[in-house]
Structure formats: structure tokens, C-alpha cells
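Deliverable D2.4 — example input (C-alpha cells):
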């Protein structure tokens, strides 16, 4: 899945081409794949993501104002510190600047050039890769050294508070804290995390359906979950989050709620249990058990959370028929990537079978990528 030259080379070349100078600081941050635990991070539940070996790179140098350049549009965008969001990709960077300013960790100005190997809208958290890399590079320009937790917090608030995507904290946390060869078991309710050994190759099959989180129903699902929580607190006032609802109370909760709120709650409660089971399966290296949990998670995502799409459902079915351990749509939903776990000796055959099944229905062959667990954000001073 590597398309040379890599993003690091392209970001540097883009910076030099635009400003005829070398960047002072470069930082890169990975995309992420959530193995299991979809839509739990804003419901106070556990998640199990990995960072992947596709990265977004930001090259930067000091300047008088803030000017941003991406290889996607190749036009320099100058933004004022006090501007409101304008529905442009540079909103994410301006949000980072404003959040760093609150911490006293923002430079007075900067030029930033961005290149990425993380596809936008593919469910691999391209936005977190961008904001985490930008948080790191801009704070270093200001002479500050933020902790991984601080970097994740800046990136989260930039996207959630400034851009207006009602995301949880999972993406920024794993992008800032990940280590190669492991998954991150992260409890969004407590903020506690632990690393779980995971060094398998993950296949990603691209549905070809791109989404924008705000336009794809993400905010609507979050609002539904918030409404359900308020309703359930009428029965259980001390309930801190939907993910904290005990499975033994699920039937009672479902009787209190009408559709679609009942289905949303059922997904959250059962998915929370699946994450715990997945952590245990990985620790015991039981990949077949892990795979069954992935299939169950996809069925819940499709039926109870109604966040899948026809293309993803077809690919998951094809993976099962081809002998994969497990597969599911990863990311917020409504498009993006299908994650596949399969024995190495069968992985190529599984991928080809999925491609053929998809092409027979949709008339095009989806891309199949291989990724491995990678390290989180990193940066270098180049001056």
C-alpha cells in the first residue's frame, strides 16, 4: 500500500516549492484503525484501536501570520487567529493554533505544508492524524514540549470545539500514544489505557464510499445516544454513561425506549462487552475468537446502529465466505474501509475473493491494503 514518494518527502518538497526555504520542524502522525469498539468513545466506553503505518506529515517554519498549504489543493490559505470556522480543511489547523494559544504553546505565526498517506473520508482518522501532527509541530515552533496527553487534548478540542465534529477522544489518544506492535485498550470513561500485544497484519478493503462525519449521520447518532442516556437516567439517576449500563439491565432499558433509541443502546452495551472479550482474546492469541467478535460487531453496527452501507455489508459477507477470521466496517461508518483479519497463508486468497465478489455487483475492483501496528506522533527539528 506504499505509494512512493512517502508523505515525508512530499511535505518537504511542497514546503520548499512554496516558500523557497527549508522547514524548521517536521512532524508526522499515523492514521488509525479501530479493531473493535465503534461509537463507544463518546459513550464512555472502551475501545481497541491501533495506529497504522500510513502517516500525515506537517512541515513548518516560523512566520508573521498563519499560512497553510496542502498537497490536495495546492493553494496557500492565510487564516487570521480570530476567524470563525469557514467549512474549509484549514479549520482543523486554525483550531489547533487557538487551542495551543490557550496553553501558551502557540507560535506567533507559521507556514505549514501538509502531505498525507492517510486517505480522507476512509474511516482511518485522517483528521486526527492532521491535528495531532500539527499540534506537535506548532508547539515545537513555540519552544514548548507537550506531553502526549496534552497533544491529544489539543487535537481533540480543535476538532470537537472549533470545527464542530462531535467526536470522542479515541482517535487523538491513539494517534498520540501508540506504539508499534501493540493495540491501545483505552477506556474513554476513565481515560485509562493499556497496551495490548498485537503484531498481526491487518487488511483493509476500501468500499470506495467516502463520508464526511458531520454529513454522514455521526452527529445525529451521538444526539440519539445522549437522548437515550437522559431517558435512562430517569430510571437510574446515577448512570454515568450508556457504556456503563450493566448487561443485566439491558432488557429493562430496552423496554423503556422506543426505536431507534433502543437499538442504539443495545449496540453500545453489547459492543462494550465485545471489547473486553477482544482484549482477552488478543492476550491469549486466539485470533479465531477475535475474528468472531469482529463479525458480531459488524452485524451490530449494521442493524442496531444503522451506520453501515451496502458495499461494506457485501465485503464482510465475502470475507466470511472466503474463510477470514473476521471482518467489519471500521471507523464512524457510512463508508470507508472494511477491516479483515485472516491467517497469513490465506490472506491473499481472501482478498482476491472479496475483490471478485465486490466487482461482480458494483463493476469495480476495490483496493486491498495491508497495514501493521505503528508508532504514534513523532517529530524532528530540521534547522
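Example output (designed residues):
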Amino acid at each position: 500500500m506504499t505509494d512512493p514518494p512517502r508523505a515525508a518527502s512530499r511535505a518537504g518538497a511542497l514546503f520548499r516549492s512554496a516558500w523557497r526555504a527549508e522547514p524548521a520542524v517536521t512532524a508526522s502522525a499515523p492514521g488509525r484503525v479501530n479493531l473493535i469498539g465503534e461509537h463507544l468513545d463518546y459513550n464512555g466506553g472502551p475501545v481497541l484501536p491501533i495506529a497504522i503505518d500510513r502517516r500525515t506529515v506537517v512541515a513548518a517554519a516560523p512566520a508573521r501570520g498563519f499560512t497553510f498549504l496542502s498537497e490536495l489543493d495546492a493553494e496557500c490559505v492565510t487564516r487570521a487567529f480570530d476567524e470563525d470556522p469557514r467549512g474549509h480543511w484549514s479549520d482543523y489547523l486554525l483550531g489547533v493554533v487557538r487551542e495551543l494559544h490557550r496553553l501558551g504553546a502557540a507560535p506567533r505565526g507559521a507556514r505549514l505544508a501538509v502531505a498525507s498517506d492517510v486517505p480522507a473520508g476512509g474511516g482511518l482518522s485522517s483528521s486526527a492524524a492532521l491535528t495531532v501532527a500539527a499540534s506537535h509541530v506548532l508547539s515545537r515552533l513555540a519552544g514548548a514540549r507537550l506531553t502526549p496527553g496534552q497533544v491529544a487534548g489539543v487535537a481533540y478540542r480543535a476538532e470537537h470545539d472549533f470545527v464542530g465534529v462531535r467526536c470522542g477522544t479515541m482517535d487523538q489518544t491513539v494517534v498520540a500514544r501508540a506504539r508499534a506492535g501493540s493495540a491501545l485498550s483505552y477506556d474513554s470513561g476513565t481515560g485509562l489505557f493499556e497496551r495490548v500485544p498485537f503484531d498481526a497484519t491487518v487488511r483493509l478493503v476500501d468500499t470506495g464510499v467516502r463520508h464526511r462525519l458531520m454529513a454522514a449521520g455521526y452527529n445525529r447518532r451521538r444526539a440519539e445516544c445522549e437522548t437515550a442516556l437522559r431517558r435512562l437516567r430517569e430510571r437510574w439517576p446515577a448512570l454515568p454513561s450508556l457504556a456503563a449500563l450493566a448487561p443485566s439491565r439491558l432488557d429493562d432499558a430496552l423496554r423503556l425506549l422506543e426505536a431507534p433509541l433502543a437499538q442504539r443502546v443495545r449496540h453500545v452495551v453489547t459492543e462494550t462487552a465485545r471489547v473486553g472479550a477482544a482484549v482477552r482474546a488478543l492476550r491469549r492469541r486466539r485470533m479465531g475468537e477475535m475474528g468472531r467478535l469482529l463479525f458480531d460487531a459488524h452485524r451490530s453496527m449494521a442493524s442496531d446502529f444503522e451506520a453501515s452501507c451496502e458495499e461494506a455489508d457485501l465485503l464482510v459477507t465475502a470475507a466470511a465466505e472466503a474463510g477470514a477470521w473476521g471482518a467489519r466496517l471500521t471507523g464512524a461508518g457510512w463508508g470507508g474501509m472494511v477491516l479483515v483479519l485472516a491467517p497469513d497463508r490465506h490472506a491473499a486468497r481472501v482478498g482476491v475473493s472479496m475483490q471478485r465478489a465486490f466487482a461482480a455487483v458494483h463493476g469495480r475492483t476495490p483496493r486491498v491494503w495491508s497495514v501493521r501496528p505503528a508508532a504514534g506522533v513523532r517529530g524532528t527539528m530540521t534547522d
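The CA atoms of residues 117 and 351 lie 21 Å apart.
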